[in-house]
UniProtKB/TrEMBL annotation:
Source organism of the structure: Cyprinus carpio (Common carp)
Protein name: inorganic diphosphatase
Signal sequence extent: none
PROSITE patterns: PPASE (PS00387)
Keyword ATP-binding: no
Pfam family, one: Pyrophosphatase
EC number: 3.6.1.1
Keywords linked to the UniProt accession: Acetylation, Hydrolase, Magnesium, Metal-binding
Subunit note: Homodimer.
Source organism superkingdom: Eukaryota
Cofactor(s) required, per the database record: Mg(2+)
């Protein structure tokens, strides 16, 4: 299963959007259309990377916008950037969310005593690879941390990218403690302190900041998936959330490909071009030789019928044109 992303608007502005397509080229919602499971039998999940490791721009799935593109969070009219919490630089993991999950603000968690934060459940990928913004990865769940953010439950699920060369060595939260000494403590410290430079108090945690194990985390994810099912089938009030989707056929919010295209067409295009990042070799067979399994960046010009592309890593070593007649 492969996905690509398409940028609209200028990066580092409030107009910037990152839209998602599936392998068929259809626009989709990363919140509702990307399946929660990459392999249900093995409890392998999909995750959408919102913020690559070591970066500061607070990107997030726009849960209230049609098709839920990624965009930068805005507070009091200003774009949000996470401060560097000494000794760290930006986010210390690839940060993102598991699709088809929802932390229901109407459900009080029996363990934390607080209601959900109205967002998909968050993940922290501890793998060594720095992912791309909008990259969809397959992850193994290791454990979870229960952050209490302004009185709301905000689960942080600790995962590792299956493509990480060390993924086989990690199966539960204690493996993180054993193989990455100090990493869990750094994670706890980061979440406690990251809002302090903005004048806010330290964050609090349920369970006295104890990381819960893999089984607990998987149960929590499955609970939030059941909340999402009620949301997408209109069995619970969506409030301001936008449930527009193109692939959940039994959802009353399911729309046509044409309606999805109209949503994207209504958004400004940066530099009169669509920048599309294709995340898997299968999705780029018509675009030329795929090297080093690196994402391919393609530019669809508005002024020509052709497509020009290059490999992200080998920027000018593979330049080609493919006419889509």
């Amino acid at each position: 299963m492969s996905f690509s992303v398409e940028e609209r608007g200028r990066d580092n502005t409030a107009d910037y959007r990152l839209y998602f397509r599936n392998a068929e080229g259809k626009y989709i919602s990363p919140f509702h259309d990307i399946p929660i499971y990459a392999d249900e039998a093995e409890n392998i999940f999909h995750a959408v990377v919102e913020v690559p490791r070591w970066t500061n721009a607070k990107m997030e799935i726009a849960t209230k916008d049609p098709l839920n593109p990624l965009k930068q969070d805005v507070k009091k009219g200003n774009l949000r950037y996470v401060s560097n919490v000494f000794p760290h630089k930006g986010y210390i993991w690839n940060y993102g969310a598991i699709p088809q999950t929802w932390e229901d603000p109407g459900h009080r968690d029996e363990d934390t005593g607080c209601c959900g934060d109205n967002d998909p459940i968050d993940i922290c990928d501890i793998g060594n690879k720095v992912c791309s913004r909008g990259e969809v990865i397959r992850v193994k769940v290791l454990g979870t941390l229960a952050l209490i953010d302004e009185g709301e439950t905000d689960w942080k699920v600790i995962v590792i990218n299956l493509e990480d060369p060390e993924a086989e060595d990690f199966n539960d939260i204690e493996d993180v403690r054993r193989l990455k000494p100090g990493f869990l403590e750094a994670t706890l410290d980061w979440f406690r302190m990251y809002k302090v430079p903005d004048g806010k108090p330290e964050n609090q945690f349920a369970f006295n900041g104890e990381f819960k194990n893999r089984d607990f985390a998987i149960k929590t994810i499955k609970d939030t998936h059941s909340f999402w099912k009620a949301l997408i089938s209109k069995k619970t009030d969506a409030g301001e959330l936008n449930c527009m989707n193109t692939c959940v056929s039994d959802s009353p919010f399911c729309c046509s490909a044409g309606e999805a295209q109209a949503v994207v067409d209504s958004v400004s295009v940066f530099c009169l071009a669509h920048r599309i990042i294709i995340q898997s070799p299968e999705a780029s067979t018509r675009l030329g030789t795929f090297e080093h399994n690196e994402p391919l960046i393609a530019f669809f010009s508005n002024n020509t019928r052709g497509l020009f592309g290059f490999n992200r890593r080998l920027c000018n070593s593979k330049l080609f044109k493919d006419d889509f007649d």
